[in-house]
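User: Could you check the structure of this?
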Amino acid sequence: MRTLLCKSILANISNNSAFSCRSLSAATSSTSRKLVYNRDTGIITDDTSSQQLYRSIIGIEIHAQLAVPTKLFSSGPTKHHPDHNLDANTSSSIHDLAYPGTLPLLSKSSVQKALISAAALNCRIQELSRFERKHYTYADLPFGYQVTQQRWPLATEGLITCRRYSPPQPKTKGNNARNRGGQSKVSGNSSSQEDLVELSKFFDVGIDRIQMEQDTGKTTAVSIGGSKTQYLIDFNRAGSALIEIVFKPQIHSAHEAASVVSTLQSLLKYLGTCDGKMEEGSLRCDLNVSIYPISPSDFSGDEADPNNPFKKYLPKGAGNRVEVKNLNSLRQIIQSAEYEALRQTSQIINGSPTGRETRTFDPKSGKTIMIREKGGDVDYRFMPEPDLPPVRLNRNILGKNSVQEFLDDNLPELPEEAIHRLMHVYGISEASALIITSDRPAISFFVDSVALCEQELKGDNQIDTVTVSITIANWLCNDLFALIKESASKKEEKESLEGALNHPISVEYSNVSAEQLGSLVALILNETVSTTQAKKLLGVMYTEELNSLPLDIAEQNNWKLISNMDQLKSLCRDVIQHGKNAKQLEQYKLGGKNVRKMTKFFTGKIMAESRGNAHPELMGKALQLVLKEIAPGVEE
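Assistant: Sure, the predicted structure tokens are below.
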């Protein structure tokens, strides 16, 4: 039976539990009610009665910063520009700072990246879209409005297929706060397993629209003593190109929300349209969380938010949506969705359902905090952008005669397609295929390595493509990626940021080529070198002999298996008949249990004498032959 993935909130109990159980009043009387949230299904249960009360329903808005070198409407450099300056307020043009008299010039590369992203998300591409001004006042918004495409977006009606989120495994053994299944260890019973919703490995979520827009500056709060706070604004990212991806409210749980964001993050990184670094603000997530009653009889009949544009997608009885802004990790997404579902349930039990609110998440307390109430619809005074013509996806923008021609040339094989191909054509495991496809250059690296390895093994009919592929996948996913990660983690001697990587963890930055890895695996499979020797060879190729083939390095360092039977027998005789081992030979001749013990002793001595180069299996056979020659008739 499926392990419950849940967390409890104990009503009227102080917030001192070692397992982060939060304290919320869940009853108007003195009776405590223990609410349990299932992170997998989104169902909130009264743990005392095992009654399922509500289920969460979640919509997501994601702002993804496009990986282009200049701003959306100016030549100002972004962080992807080679001359980008990290110092605050050094990478903005006069247009980005709203100087009077400057005019916007649309970045063609931004439109192209946005189009590739939309196509990969199965959207309906609008060959004619428009920019408009969304007016609101904020200190980090120089113009006093944001240029966006809310009413005339670049793409609509998309669909993303997500793999269901798996919680990370604990790093330590013993009594952890969370067990292997992701369930909090709390006192009392958990939700009835009989009532669990059956969950598939994959699930689909609809996309309402993808729109292009410009980013704002970044505001940082700095304490200046006492209760005083100073707000510093950095306009470096102001005007950077964003795509806002608005998902339909078809997500039911905290883990499903994490799955959507994780899948999108991986896809955009794979496409090269966004670096996906949530910790740097390249990918920012807003959740819209509400709950609805499990039982139709619990529906009061009053619509909470009749003006909700996504009303048709919501279940009957769904409450007011609460927006949680600017989440920058999967952990925050899970915690905020969970907290909101439980908070809103507690509010309803107390007779005071939550209103429409905008909230932020506090990582320290694990709670959401209200920023402002939404008493009515905000009037953003949308108007068409008068300084920009409509965006026509023609040759001027795309460099091709049609959208389809552009996508044929620029949209790569998508990750799930690549996973299916690697598993079914090459026979590797799903786990290996997932690792390889997480780094797009690794796909061609793997394919090239397999082809080169098979070429070197040509004529050896005992080694098939599947064996070659599985072996290369193991060496790529484990050993080579480990070396790349180690290399990326080493700090540059000068001008390196604390905790920064020198380069991404990608085979694009590997010092070992596909040809070298393929040759190395060929040496392993034809038993020219052992696994231990191969690890040494890989390390030398990565750090020292960058352009040498593994066979050349193996011959230079005498890292080759001794497979010749005559050589092995000679080596065995020299060790067995050496004066230092005379006592052990006599002990062997006594027979019985001494045979196995002394055979193990001689094996160790022979491997040491050969410096680990003796072929283990063939050496074992040679040892048996030599022992029968020297001590015939000895039986175990």
